[in-house]
Design goal:
The structure is a single chain. This protein has helices at about 75-80, 105-120, 130-150, 195-200, 255, 260-270, 275-285, and strands at about 5, 15, 45-55, 65-70, 75, 85-90, 95-105, 155, 160-165, 170-175, 180-185, 185-190, 225, 235-240, 245-250, 295-305. By secondary structure, the chain is of the alpha+beta class. The strands form three sheets. Strands 4, 5, 7, 8, 9, 10, 13 and 14 form an eight-stranded antiparallel sheet that branches.
Length: about 300
């Protein structure tokens, strides 16, 4: 396949073929399939959501091209820039939590990330199929808008999120925003970056470095939009099983490029509250330089029985 045209602006991003979907360790429903979109309504658990988030421009960038949807509304990067974490709480499903990192320069990137999280958060049905289709439609829409208006040329965004609806709990992502599951102070990465760097690592041509990447390693193999032509993308969507209260970290690369995995784990060890973990990770990213926009969500997902849902 011939190299495709690079994405301009703040990332020198050449988009190539999409990578295969990653294995998600023990969190994935591999055999029963009960939480897949093919399952009948009513078989899935209900889940509550609580936690905290922060969305900030960092120390270096003039604007904030990140955006997020935290359960019930969009947080525009430009309007957010909060210094302390904000609480998120949903007593039962459906709900959706997502973070997005804009691509294409300040105007286009900020518009793209906001559009992506807004459209996903307002989906009438929160299922794997519905979210996947919406992201595919958004990819087409953003590409076409960038082709029609030079001010929004190559506008696009990454996306990573956790959804819960009538058919269960699932994660989804495109790009290099990430989702981790925390257990006993350790962070297990549940997503695989859609990046040139990840492909080189898979080929044995690059050693994994859990920390800040050189500029050329920011190249993405796919994003939502971000091209001057409409091409299909491979949206990674997979069901997960949560049998007990479980904590997840969802973030843009403004965190993971600034702090190595071991340091992230060190920062959250002994910190029990989700909001407090957000604050610790944010402070660490800022202390390390805060060179990019930073969006962090730490959320607890709790299975609910009929009594918890008020049905008993």
């Amino acid at each position: 396949m011939h190299p495709r045209k690079p994405i301009p602006a703040r990332r020198s991003t050449i988009i190539g073929p999409p990578p295969p979907a990653p294995p998600l360790a023990s969190a994935v429903v591999e055999e029963s399939g009960l939480l897949s979109d093919s399952a009948p309504l009513g078989v899935a658990e209900f889940y509550g959501l609580s936690g905290g988030w922060i969305c900030h421009r960092g120390k270096v960038r003039r604007g904030n091209e990140d955006a997020c949807w935290m359960g019930s509304g969009v947080i525009d990067g430009e309007a957010a820039d909060c210094e302390t974490p904000t609480e998120v709480k949903k007593s039962t499903s459906p709900w959706l939590v997502a973070v997005s990192d804009g691509i294409g320069g300040h105007l286009a990137g900020a518009e793209a990330s906001r559009a992506v999280v807004t459209e996903l958060g307002q989906c009438e049905l929160i299922t794997q199929d519905a979210i996947k289709k919406q992201i595919e439609n958004l990819n087409k829409t953003l590409c076409e808008r960038g082709m029609a208006d030079k001010a929004f040329a190559s506008m696009g965004a990454t996306i990573a999120g956790l959804g819960c609806g009538p058919k269960g709990l699932f994660i989804f992502h495109v790009g290099d925003s990430r989702i981790y599951r925390e257990e006993e102070g350790k962070l297990e990465l549940l997503t695989r970056d859609d990046s040139e760097a990840e492909d080189l690592i898979d080929q044995g041509l690059l050693e994994r470095n859990e920390g800040k990447r050189p500029g050329f390693l920011h190249a993405l193999t796919q994003a939502v939009g971000g091209r001057d032509e409409v091409l299909e993308i491979d949206v990674h969507v997979q069901a997960i099983a949560v049998m007990r209260p479980t904590r997840f970290l969802i973030c843009t690369d403004g965190l993971t490029d600034m702090i190595q995995l071991a340091d992230m784990e060190h920062l959250i060890q002994g910190v029990e509250g989700a909001k407090e973990q957000v604050a610790a990770l944010f402070a660490g990213a800022m202390e390390a330089g805060g060179q990019d926009n930073i969006t962090i969500a730490v959320v607890d997902v709790t299975p609910l029985d009929a009594v918890d849902r008020g049905e008993g």
